[in-house]
Amino acid sequence: MSDPLLKVTGLQGWYGRIQALYGLDFEVPDKGVVTLLGANGAGKTTTLRALSGMIQTAGEISFAGQSIAGKVTEDIVRLGIAHVPEGRGTFTAMTVEENLQLGAMTRSDTRAIAEDIERAYAYFPRLAERRGQQAGTLSGGEQQMLAISRALMLRPRLMLLDEPSFGLAPLIVEELFAILVDLKEKEGLSMLVVEQNAALALEIADEAYLIETGRLVMSGPAQQIGSDENVRRAYLGY
Amino acid sequence: MDLFIHQVLAGLATGGIYACMALAIVMIYQAIHHLNFAQGEMAMFSTFIAWQLIEWGVPYWGAFFLTIVVSFIGGVVIERTVFKPLHNAPILAHIVAFIALFAIFNSVAGFIWDFTIKSFPTPFGQESLFGSGLMGAHDAGMIGVTLVLLVLLFLFFRNTRVGLSMRAAASNPDSARLVGVRVGWMIALGWGMAAAIGAVAGMMIAPVVFLEPNMMLAILIYGFAGAVVGGLTSPGGAVIGGFAVGIIENLAGTFIPVVGSELKLAIALALIVTVLMFKPTGLFGARIVTRV
After folding, report:
1. In total, how many domains does chain B have?
2. Closest to A97 (Cα-Cα) out of A68, A63, A64, A133
3. Which residues of chain A make contact with B33, given a CB cutoff of 8 A?
4. Cβ contact A105–B165 (<8 Å)
Protein backbone atom coordinates (compact mmCIF):
# COMPACT_ATOMS: atom_id res chain seq x y z
CA MET A 1 0.00 0.00 0.00
CA SER A 2 1.38 3.40 -0.94
CA ASP A 3 1.82 6.21 1.52
CA PRO A 4 -1.23 8.39 2.09
CA LEU A 5 -1.25 11.88 0.59
CA LEU A 6 -2.28 13.40 3.88
CA LYS A 7 -1.53 11.83 7.21
CA VAL A 8 -2.73 13.43 10.42
CA THR A 9 -1.56 12.21 13.81
CA GLY A 10 -2.75 13.47 17.18
CA LEU A 11 -4.10 16.72 15.76
CA GLN A 12 -5.21 19.22 18.38
CA GLY A 13 -6.62 22.64 17.61
CA TRP A 14 -7.53 25.80 19.49
CA TYR A 15 -9.66 28.85 18.92
CA GLY A 16 -7.87 31.32 21.13
CA ARG A 17 -7.73 29.51 24.46
CA ILE A 18 -10.59 27.16 23.77
CA GLN A 19 -9.56 23.73 22.65
CA ALA A 20 -11.72 22.40 19.84
CA LEU A 21 -9.83 19.34 18.61
CA TYR A 22 -8.53 16.62 20.93
CA GLY A 23 -6.10 14.45 19.05
CA LEU A 24 -7.45 13.35 15.67
CA ASP A 25 -5.81 10.66 13.55
CA PHE A 26 -6.85 10.25 9.95
CA GLU A 27 -5.54 9.86 6.44
CA VAL A 28 -6.47 10.86 2.93
CA PRO A 29 -5.09 8.43 0.33
CA ASP A 30 -3.71 9.72 -2.96
CA LYS A 31 -6.60 10.11 -5.44
CA GLY A 32 -9.00 9.22 -2.64
CA VAL A 33 -12.05 11.01 -1.30
CA VAL A 34 -12.55 11.10 2.44
CA THR A 35 -15.46 12.62 4.28
CA LEU A 36 -15.62 13.97 7.77
CA LEU A 37 -19.10 13.69 9.25
CA GLY A 38 -20.60 14.96 12.44
CA ALA A 39 -23.12 17.26 14.05
CA ASN A 40 -22.93 21.04 14.16
CA GLY A 41 -20.02 22.16 16.29
CA ALA A 42 -18.34 18.75 16.29
CA GLY A 43 -15.13 20.23 14.92
CA LYS A 44 -15.37 19.50 11.19
CA THR A 45 -14.71 23.04 9.98
CA THR A 46 -12.07 23.42 12.67
CA THR A 47 -10.26 20.38 11.35
CA LEU A 48 -10.08 21.86 7.86
CA ARG A 49 -8.94 25.19 9.27
CA ALA A 50 -6.27 23.41 11.24
CA LEU A 51 -4.99 21.70 8.09
CA SER A 52 -4.77 25.07 6.33
CA GLY A 53 -2.86 26.66 9.17
CA MET A 54 -5.66 29.05 10.05
CA ILE A 55 -5.78 28.19 13.76
CA GLN A 56 -3.26 27.19 16.38
CA THR A 57 -2.56 23.48 16.31
CA ALA A 58 -0.47 20.76 17.87
CA GLY A 59 0.23 17.30 16.51
CA GLU A 60 1.66 16.09 13.25
CA ILE A 61 0.29 16.83 9.78
CA SER A 62 2.19 15.37 6.90
CA PHE A 63 1.31 16.16 3.30
CA ALA A 64 3.01 14.32 0.45
CA GLY A 65 5.71 13.24 2.84
CA GLN A 66 6.37 16.73 4.14
CA SER A 67 5.41 18.09 7.55
CA ILE A 68 3.07 21.08 7.26
CA ALA A 69 2.18 21.48 10.93
CA GLY A 70 2.85 25.06 12.05
CA LYS A 71 3.30 26.40 8.51
CA VAL A 72 1.41 29.55 7.54
CA THR A 73 -1.62 29.33 5.27
CA GLU A 74 0.11 31.00 2.31
CA ASP A 75 2.87 28.37 2.30
CA ILE A 76 0.48 25.43 2.72
CA VAL A 77 -1.47 26.63 -0.33
CA ARG A 78 1.74 26.64 -2.34
CA LEU A 79 2.23 22.94 -1.61
CA GLY A 80 -1.03 22.19 -3.40
CA ILE A 81 -3.77 22.18 -0.79
CA ALA A 82 -6.79 24.16 -1.95
CA HIS A 83 -9.40 25.03 0.66
CA VAL A 84 -12.99 25.85 -0.29
CA PRO A 85 -14.01 27.57 2.91
CA GLU A 86 -17.25 27.62 4.82
CA GLY A 87 -19.42 30.36 3.34
CA ARG A 88 -17.55 30.05 0.02
CA GLY A 89 -15.12 32.93 0.60
CA THR A 90 -16.15 34.78 -2.55
CA PHE A 91 -14.37 38.04 -3.37
CA THR A 92 -17.74 39.71 -3.72
CA ALA A 93 -16.62 43.04 -5.17
CA MET A 94 -14.61 41.42 -7.95
CA THR A 95 -15.71 39.82 -11.16
CA VAL A 96 -16.06 36.09 -11.64
CA GLU A 97 -12.98 36.06 -13.84
CA GLU A 98 -10.92 38.00 -11.31
CA ASN A 99 -11.93 35.48 -8.66
CA LEU A 100 -10.63 32.70 -10.87
CA GLN A 101 -7.40 34.54 -11.56
CA LEU A 102 -6.88 34.93 -7.84
CA GLY A 103 -7.16 31.17 -7.50
CA ALA A 104 -4.05 30.90 -9.66
CA MET A 105 -2.22 33.55 -7.64
CA THR A 106 0.66 31.25 -6.80
CA ARG A 107 1.24 30.18 -10.40
CA SER A 108 3.13 32.09 -13.07
CA ASP A 109 2.35 30.04 -16.20
CA THR A 110 0.09 32.64 -17.81
CA ARG A 111 -0.98 30.53 -20.75
CA ALA A 112 -1.88 27.49 -18.67
CA ILE A 113 -3.83 29.74 -16.31
CA ALA A 114 -5.91 31.01 -19.23
CA GLU A 115 -6.52 27.42 -20.29
CA ASP A 116 -7.57 26.45 -16.79
CA ILE A 117 -10.02 29.32 -16.66
CA GLU A 118 -11.62 28.01 -19.83
CA ARG A 119 -11.63 24.52 -18.34
CA ALA A 120 -13.45 25.85 -15.27
CA TYR A 121 -16.00 27.48 -17.57
CA ALA A 122 -16.43 24.15 -19.33
CA TYR A 123 -17.23 22.47 -16.04
CA PHE A 124 -19.52 25.30 -14.97
CA PRO A 125 -21.02 26.95 -18.06
CA ARG A 126 -23.09 29.26 -15.86
CA LEU A 127 -19.90 30.91 -14.67
CA ALA A 128 -18.87 31.52 -18.27
CA GLU A 129 -22.08 33.44 -18.86
CA ARG A 130 -21.31 35.62 -15.86
CA ARG A 131 -17.56 36.02 -16.24
CA GLY A 132 -17.64 39.82 -16.16
CA GLN A 133 -20.24 40.05 -13.41
CA GLN A 134 -19.55 41.08 -9.82
CA ALA A 135 -19.23 37.80 -7.94
CA GLY A 136 -21.36 39.04 -5.05
CA THR A 137 -24.37 39.14 -7.36
CA LEU A 138 -24.21 35.42 -8.12
CA SER A 139 -26.69 33.03 -6.55
CA GLY A 140 -25.53 30.79 -3.72
CA GLY A 141 -25.10 27.83 -6.03
CA GLU A 142 -23.13 29.84 -8.55
CA GLN A 143 -20.90 31.17 -5.78
CA GLN A 144 -20.23 27.63 -4.63
CA MET A 145 -19.32 26.66 -8.19
CA LEU A 146 -17.04 29.69 -8.31
CA ALA A 147 -15.43 28.71 -5.01
CA ILE A 148 -14.70 25.21 -6.29
CA SER A 149 -13.42 26.56 -9.61
CA ARG A 150 -11.22 29.03 -7.77
CA ALA A 151 -9.76 26.16 -5.73
CA LEU A 152 -9.16 24.14 -8.91
CA MET A 153 -7.19 27.04 -10.39
CA LEU A 154 -4.41 26.14 -7.97
CA ARG A 155 -4.11 22.73 -9.70
CA PRO A 156 -4.28 21.26 -6.22
CA ARG A 157 -3.24 17.80 -5.14
CA LEU A 158 -5.75 17.91 -2.32
CA MET A 159 -8.97 19.89 -2.12
CA LEU A 160 -10.58 20.63 1.23
CA LEU A 161 -14.32 21.23 0.86
CA ASP A 162 -16.29 22.75 3.73
CA GLU A 163 -20.03 22.07 3.46
CA PRO A 164 -20.32 22.45 -0.29
CA SER A 165 -24.07 21.73 -0.15
CA PHE A 166 -24.84 24.28 2.55
CA GLY A 167 -27.89 26.43 1.82
CA LEU A 168 -28.31 25.22 -1.75
CA ALA A 169 -31.39 23.89 -3.53
CA PRO A 170 -31.41 20.08 -3.98
CA LEU A 171 -31.10 20.29 -7.76
CA ILE A 172 -28.03 22.49 -7.54
CA VAL A 173 -26.52 20.19 -4.94
CA GLU A 174 -27.00 17.25 -7.27
CA GLU A 175 -25.32 19.12 -10.12
CA LEU A 176 -22.44 20.12 -7.88
CA PHE A 177 -21.79 16.65 -6.56
CA ALA A 178 -21.95 15.17 -10.04
CA ILE A 179 -19.07 17.48 -10.92
CA LEU A 180 -17.16 16.48 -7.78
CA VAL A 181 -17.53 12.84 -8.83
CA ASP A 182 -16.21 13.82 -12.26
CA LEU A 183 -13.22 15.53 -10.71
CA LYS A 184 -12.52 12.47 -8.63
CA GLU A 185 -12.83 9.97 -11.44
CA LYS A 186 -11.43 11.88 -14.41
CA GLU A 187 -8.80 14.05 -12.78
CA GLY A 188 -7.90 11.84 -9.85
CA LEU A 189 -8.23 14.74 -7.44
CA SER A 190 -7.97 13.89 -3.74
CA MET A 191 -10.60 15.48 -1.55
CA LEU A 192 -11.44 15.86 2.09
CA VAL A 193 -15.12 16.74 2.29
CA VAL A 194 -16.90 18.06 5.36
CA GLU A 195 -20.66 17.69 5.12
CA GLN A 196 -23.79 17.83 7.19
CA ASN A 197 -25.63 16.06 4.43
CA ALA A 198 -24.11 12.69 5.29
CA ALA A 199 -25.98 10.63 2.71
CA LEU A 200 -24.62 12.81 -0.05
CA ALA A 201 -21.05 12.79 1.23
CA LEU A 202 -21.03 9.01 1.72
CA GLU A 203 -22.01 8.58 -1.91
CA ILE A 204 -18.84 10.15 -3.25
CA ALA A 205 -16.43 9.21 -0.45
CA ASP A 206 -14.26 6.14 -0.18
CA GLU A 207 -13.61 6.52 3.51
CA ALA A 208 -15.57 8.23 6.24
CA TYR A 209 -14.68 9.47 9.69
CA LEU A 210 -17.21 10.38 12.35
CA ILE A 211 -16.31 13.24 14.61
CA GLU A 212 -17.95 14.23 17.88
CA THR A 213 -16.90 17.16 20.09
CA GLY A 214 -13.43 17.24 18.67
CA ARG A 215 -12.76 13.52 18.80
CA LEU A 216 -13.04 10.80 16.19
CA VAL A 217 -15.55 8.21 17.25
CA MET A 218 -15.64 5.92 14.24
CA SER A 219 -14.10 5.37 10.88
CA GLY A 220 -14.37 2.95 8.01
CA PRO A 221 -15.21 2.53 4.35
CA ALA A 222 -17.96 4.93 3.35
CA GLN A 223 -20.35 2.18 2.26
CA GLN A 224 -20.04 0.36 5.54
CA ILE A 225 -20.59 3.49 7.63
CA GLY A 226 -23.56 4.45 5.49
CA SER A 227 -25.24 1.08 5.82
CA ASP A 228 -24.78 0.68 9.56
CA GLU A 229 -28.23 1.21 11.03
CA ASN A 230 -26.99 2.30 14.47
CA VAL A 231 -24.44 4.74 13.14
CA ARG A 232 -27.02 6.27 10.90
CA ARG A 233 -29.49 6.78 13.67
CA ALA A 234 -27.00 8.00 16.26
CA TYR A 235 -24.76 10.23 14.19
CA LEU A 236 -26.10 10.87 10.75
CA GLY A 237 -29.72 11.55 11.52
CA TYR A 238 -31.42 9.87 8.60
CA MET B 1 -20.13 85.23 -15.20
CA ASP B 2 -16.44 86.03 -15.55
CA LEU B 3 -16.09 85.98 -11.81
CA PHE B 4 -17.86 82.62 -11.68
CA ILE B 5 -15.56 81.02 -14.25
CA HIS B 6 -12.57 82.55 -12.56
CA GLN B 7 -13.60 81.12 -9.20
CA VAL B 8 -14.32 77.69 -10.68
CA LEU B 9 -10.87 77.59 -12.24
CA ALA B 10 -9.27 78.77 -9.02
CA GLY B 11 -11.27 76.11 -7.21
CA LEU B 12 -10.02 73.52 -9.65
CA ALA B 13 -6.47 74.61 -8.85
CA THR B 14 -6.86 74.23 -5.09
CA GLY B 15 -8.99 71.16 -5.72
CA GLY B 16 -5.95 69.61 -7.37
CA ILE B 17 -4.17 69.81 -4.00
CA TYR B 18 -7.03 68.10 -2.21
CA ALA B 19 -7.45 65.52 -4.95
CA CYS B 20 -3.81 64.56 -4.68
CA MET B 21 -4.11 64.17 -0.92
CA ALA B 22 -7.44 62.36 -1.21
CA LEU B 23 -5.77 59.82 -3.49
CA ALA B 24 -3.17 59.04 -0.82
CA ILE B 25 -5.93 58.74 1.78
CA VAL B 26 -7.93 56.31 -0.35
CA MET B 27 -4.81 54.26 -0.97
CA ILE B 28 -4.21 53.66 2.71
CA TYR B 29 -7.90 53.15 3.36
CA GLN B 30 -7.96 50.40 0.75
CA ALA B 31 -5.11 48.65 2.53
CA ILE B 32 -6.07 48.99 6.18
CA HIS B 33 -9.69 50.25 6.32
CA HIS B 34 -8.69 53.10 8.59
CA LEU B 35 -8.02 56.74 7.92
CA ASN B 36 -4.40 57.45 8.70
CA PHE B 37 -4.27 60.79 10.55
CA ALA B 38 -0.51 60.90 10.13
CA GLN B 39 -0.80 60.80 6.33
CA GLY B 40 -0.42 64.56 5.98
CA GLU B 41 2.60 64.68 8.27
CA MET B 42 4.22 61.79 6.40
CA ALA B 43 3.72 63.73 3.16
CA MET B 44 5.16 66.85 4.75
CA PHE B 45 8.20 64.90 5.95
CA SER B 46 8.73 63.48 2.47
CA THR B 47 8.58 66.97 1.04
CA PHE B 48 11.29 68.08 3.45
CA ILE B 49 13.43 65.20 2.25
CA ALA B 50 12.96 66.41 -1.33
CA TRP B 51 13.77 69.96 -0.24
CA GLN B 52 16.95 68.77 1.48
CA LEU B 53 18.02 66.81 -1.61
CA ILE B 54 17.48 69.87 -3.79
CA GLU B 55 19.45 71.97 -1.29
CA TRP B 56 22.27 69.47 -1.63
CA GLY B 57 22.30 70.09 -5.34
CA VAL B 58 20.27 67.17 -6.67
CA PRO B 59 18.31 68.26 -9.77
CA TYR B 60 14.54 68.62 -9.28
CA TRP B 61 13.37 65.43 -11.01
CA GLY B 62 16.17 63.42 -9.43
CA ALA B 63 15.06 64.62 -6.02
CA PHE B 64 11.43 64.02 -6.97
CA PHE B 65 11.87 60.33 -7.83
CA LEU B 66 14.40 59.67 -5.08
CA THR B 67 11.92 61.08 -2.57
CA ILE B 68 9.19 58.81 -3.92
CA VAL B 69 11.43 55.77 -3.48
CA VAL B 70 12.54 56.78 0.01
CA SER B 71 8.92 57.47 1.03
CA PHE B 72 7.77 54.12 -0.33
CA ILE B 73 10.42 52.32 1.70
CA GLY B 74 9.59 54.47 4.72
CA GLY B 75 5.91 53.55 4.44
CA VAL B 76 6.70 49.84 4.27
CA VAL B 77 9.06 50.12 7.24
CA ILE B 78 6.45 51.96 9.32
CA GLU B 79 3.90 49.24 8.62
CA ARG B 80 6.32 46.42 9.43
CA THR B 81 7.64 47.96 12.64
CA VAL B 82 4.64 49.80 14.09
CA PHE B 83 1.43 48.45 12.64
CA LYS B 84 2.16 44.79 11.99
CA PRO B 85 2.57 44.11 15.73
CA LEU B 86 -0.71 45.97 16.29
CA HIS B 87 -2.50 43.83 13.74
CA ASN B 88 -4.96 42.26 16.15
CA ALA B 89 -5.17 45.24 18.48
CA PRO B 90 -8.43 47.19 18.79
CA ILE B 91 -9.04 50.21 16.56
CA LEU B 92 -8.26 52.64 19.37
CA ALA B 93 -4.71 51.31 19.56
CA HIS B 94 -4.32 52.09 15.86
CA ILE B 95 -5.68 55.58 16.37
CA VAL B 96 -3.23 56.22 19.19
CA ALA B 97 -0.43 55.02 16.94
CA PHE B 98 -1.62 57.36 14.16
CA ILE B 99 -1.62 60.29 16.56
CA ALA B 100 1.82 59.33 17.83
CA LEU B 101 3.15 59.21 14.27
CA PHE B 102 1.54 62.57 13.60
CA ALA B 103 3.28 64.18 16.57
CA ILE B 104 6.59 62.45 15.89
CA PHE B 105 6.80 63.48 12.24
CA ASN B 106 5.69 67.01 13.03
CA SER B 107 8.21 67.62 15.77
CA VAL B 108 11.08 65.74 14.16
CA ALA B 109 10.61 67.82 11.00
CA GLY B 110 10.63 70.95 13.14
CA PHE B 111 13.71 69.72 14.98
CA ILE B 112 15.70 68.95 11.84
CA TRP B 113 14.55 71.71 9.52
CA ASP B 114 13.04 74.23 12.04
CA PHE B 115 9.68 75.94 11.69
CA THR B 116 10.62 78.79 9.38
CA ILE B 117 8.70 78.86 6.12
CA LYS B 118 10.68 77.66 3.10
CA SER B 119 9.86 78.05 -0.55
CA PHE B 120 9.73 74.89 -2.62
CA PRO B 121 10.45 74.88 -6.35
CA THR B 122 7.93 73.93 -9.00
CA PRO B 123 8.98 72.08 -12.13
CA PHE B 124 6.19 73.69 -14.14
CA GLY B 125 7.12 77.35 -13.83
CA GLN B 126 5.21 80.19 -12.17
CA GLU B 127 3.76 82.04 -15.16
CA SER B 128 0.04 81.81 -15.73
CA LEU B 129 -1.48 79.75 -18.49
CA PHE B 130 -3.29 81.30 -21.45
CA GLY B 131 -1.91 84.67 -20.33
CA SER B 132 -5.19 85.40 -18.57
CA GLY B 133 -4.22 84.83 -14.98
CA LEU B 134 -7.00 82.30 -14.61
CA MET B 135 -4.80 79.36 -13.82
CA GLY B 136 -1.08 79.13 -13.17
CA ALA B 137 1.23 76.69 -14.93
CA HIS B 138 1.96 75.01 -11.63
CA ASP B 139 -1.75 74.50 -10.92
CA ALA B 140 -2.25 72.94 -14.33
CA GLY B 141 0.84 70.78 -13.83
CA MET B 142 -0.41 69.63 -10.45
CA ILE B 143 -3.79 68.66 -11.88
CA GLY B 144 -1.97 66.80 -14.64
CA VAL B 145 0.20 64.92 -12.14
CA THR B 146 -2.87 63.97 -10.10
CA LEU B 147 -4.63 62.61 -13.18
CA VAL B 148 -1.54 60.67 -14.27
CA LEU B 149 -1.31 59.13 -10.79
CA LEU B 150 -4.97 58.21 -10.98
CA VAL B 151 -4.57 56.48 -14.33
CA LEU B 152 -1.47 54.63 -13.13
CA LEU B 153 -3.30 53.44 -10.03
CA PHE B 154 -6.29 52.37 -12.08
CA LEU B 155 -4.11 50.33 -14.43
CA PHE B 156 -2.19 48.88 -11.52
CA PHE B 157 -5.28 47.64 -9.69
CA ARG B 158 -7.07 46.41 -12.82
CA ASN B 159 -4.33 44.82 -14.81
CA THR B 160 -1.55 43.56 -12.59
CA ARG B 161 -1.45 40.47 -10.43
CA VAL B 162 -0.05 42.42 -7.50
CA GLY B 163 -2.88 44.92 -7.83
CA LEU B 164 -5.43 42.12 -7.91
CA SER B 165 -3.82 40.53 -4.85
CA MET B 166 -3.92 43.82 -2.99
CA ARG B 167 -7.62 44.21 -3.69
CA ALA B 168 -8.22 40.62 -2.60
CA ALA B 169 -6.24 41.10 0.61
CA ALA B 170 -8.22 44.23 1.42
CA SER B 171 -11.66 42.84 0.67
CA ASN B 172 -11.40 39.35 2.16
CA PRO B 173 -8.13 38.60 3.98
CA ASP B 174 -9.04 35.02 4.92
CA SER B 175 -9.95 34.04 1.39
CA ALA B 176 -6.91 35.85 0.07
CA ARG B 177 -4.65 33.75 2.29
CA LEU B 178 -6.41 30.62 1.09
CA VAL B 179 -5.43 31.37 -2.50
CA GLY B 180 -1.90 32.10 -1.38
CA VAL B 181 -1.84 35.91 -1.25
CA ARG B 182 0.65 37.10 1.36
CA VAL B 183 -1.77 39.45 3.05
CA GLY B 184 0.70 41.00 5.48
CA TRP B 185 2.99 42.09 2.67
CA MET B 186 0.08 43.44 0.66
CA ILE B 187 -0.79 45.72 3.57
CA ALA B 188 2.83 46.84 3.80
CA LEU B 189 2.81 47.50 0.07
CA GLY B 190 -0.35 49.59 0.52
CA TRP B 191 1.44 51.67 3.14
CA GLY B 192 4.42 52.11 0.87
CA MET B 193 2.25 53.23 -2.03
CA ALA B 194 0.24 55.58 0.16
CA ALA B 195 3.45 57.14 1.47
CA ALA B 196 4.77 57.50 -2.09
CA ILE B 197 1.56 59.13 -3.33
CA GLY B 198 1.58 61.36 -0.26
CA ALA B 199 5.12 62.40 -1.15
CA VAL B 200 3.98 63.38 -4.64
CA ALA B 201 1.08 65.31 -3.13
CA GLY B 202 3.40 67.08 -0.71
CA MET B 203 5.87 68.07 -3.44
CA MET B 204 3.03 69.39 -5.60
CA ILE B 205 1.40 71.26 -2.75
CA ALA B 206 4.53 72.80 -1.21
CA PRO B 207 5.11 75.40 -3.96
CA VAL B 208 1.59 76.72 -3.29
CA VAL B 209 1.37 76.73 0.50
CA PHE B 210 5.13 76.92 1.23
CA LEU B 211 7.06 74.32 3.13
CA GLU B 212 6.84 74.16 6.91
CA PRO B 213 6.01 71.41 9.42
CA ASN B 214 2.35 72.45 9.74
CA MET B 215 1.64 72.87 6.06
CA MET B 216 -0.57 69.80 5.79
CA LEU B 217 -2.97 70.41 8.68
CA ALA B 218 -5.81 72.05 6.80
CA ILE B 219 -5.04 70.23 3.57
CA LEU B 220 -5.41 66.87 5.24
CA ILE B 221 -8.91 67.81 6.39
CA TYR B 222 -9.88 69.00 2.91
CA GLY B 223 -8.32 65.84 1.51
CA PHE B 224 -10.41 63.75 3.91
CA ALA B 225 -13.46 65.73 2.82
CA GLY B 226 -12.67 65.02 -0.82
CA ALA B 227 -12.04 61.34 -0.20
CA VAL B 228 -15.22 60.89 1.83
CA VAL B 229 -17.37 62.88 -0.59
CA GLY B 230 -16.08 60.86 -3.53
CA GLY B 231 -16.11 57.54 -1.73
CA LEU B 232 -13.26 56.03 0.22
CA THR B 233 -13.26 52.92 -1.91
CA SER B 234 -12.91 54.72 -5.21
CA PRO B 235 -9.67 56.45 -6.26
CA GLY B 236 -11.45 58.16 -9.15
CA GLY B 237 -14.24 59.27 -6.85
CA ALA B 238 -11.73 60.66 -4.38
CA VAL B 239 -10.08 62.78 -7.08
CA ILE B 240 -13.43 64.12 -8.26
CA GLY B 241 -14.35 64.68 -4.61
CA GLY B 242 -11.15 66.63 -4.08
CA PHE B 243 -11.86 68.88 -7.05
CA ALA B 244 -15.47 69.31 -5.92
CA VAL B 245 -14.40 70.40 -2.45
CA GLY B 246 -11.99 72.93 -3.95
CA ILE B 247 -14.60 74.39 -6.26
CA ILE B 248 -17.40 74.48 -3.69
CA GLU B 249 -15.11 76.06 -1.12
CA ASN B 250 -14.16 78.78 -3.57
CA LEU B 251 -17.65 79.47 -4.85
CA ALA B 252 -19.11 79.56 -1.35
CA GLY B 253 -16.36 81.89 -0.21
CA THR B 254 -17.09 84.26 -3.10
CA PHE B 255 -20.82 84.19 -3.59
CA ILE B 256 -22.23 83.62 -0.12
CA PRO B 257 -21.43 86.88 1.64
CA VAL B 258 -21.41 85.58 5.21
CA VAL B 259 -19.05 82.72 4.47
CA GLY B 260 -15.94 84.61 3.50
CA SER B 261 -12.62 82.95 4.02
CA GLU B 262 -13.10 82.19 7.72
CA LEU B 263 -15.89 79.68 7.22
CA LYS B 264 -14.38 77.84 4.28
CA LEU B 265 -13.18 74.98 6.45
CA ALA B 266 -16.59 74.71 8.05
CA ILE B 267 -18.08 74.36 4.56
CA ALA B 268 -15.79 71.41 3.87
CA LEU B 269 -16.86 69.67 7.05
CA ALA B 270 -20.53 70.40 6.48
CA LEU B 271 -20.09 68.83 3.06
CA ILE B 272 -18.70 65.63 4.58
CA VAL B 273 -21.60 65.31 6.98
CA THR B 274 -24.20 66.03 4.30
CA VAL B 275 -22.84 63.47 1.89
CA LEU B 276 -22.53 60.86 4.61
CA MET B 277 -26.14 61.43 5.62
CA PHE B 278 -27.48 60.73 2.15
CA LYS B 279 -24.81 58.45 0.69
CA PRO B 280 -22.80 56.74 3.41
CA THR B 281 -20.42 55.19 0.88
CA GLY B 282 -19.67 58.51 -0.81
CA LEU B 283 -20.81 59.63 -4.24
CA PHE B 284 -18.76 57.05 -6.14
CA GLY B 285 -18.11 54.49 -3.43
CA ALA B 286 -18.80 50.89 -4.36
CA ARG B 287 -22.06 49.53 -3.06
CA ILE B 288 -21.26 45.90 -2.77
CA VAL B 289 -24.23 43.81 -3.70
CA THR B 290 -24.45 40.48 -1.99
CA ARG B 291 -26.88 37.68 -2.44
CA VAL B 292 -26.98 34.76 -0.10
Report:
1. 1
2. A133
3. none
4. yes
